[in-house]
Hints:
2 helices, alpha+beta, globular, 4-stranded mixed sheet, binds zinc ion
Amino acid sequence: MYWVYENWRARGHKAVIHLDECGFCNNGRGVTTGTRPDNGRWKGPFPSPETARHVAERTGGNVKICRCLDQVMQRRLSNMELNYRG
Length: 86
Ligand SMILES: [Zn+2]
């Protein structure tokens, strides 16, 4: 499953797409130390990366793709962004 972490405190407003096995994501619970809970929120789970991508886009934040997604998927989602804006 795919998750979106929306963060509006770190460096500008951003939305990062993750896989649920990612260490940063931890099935939507996120990391337990280091960040304050009001810094952001998890959205998900989503069954497809495309759905996660659209949700990330709708937050209005700067969309990023975590390295937990493989390079093929990173490229696919990046191309979606180009198509969406083109
Ligand atoms: Zn990740």
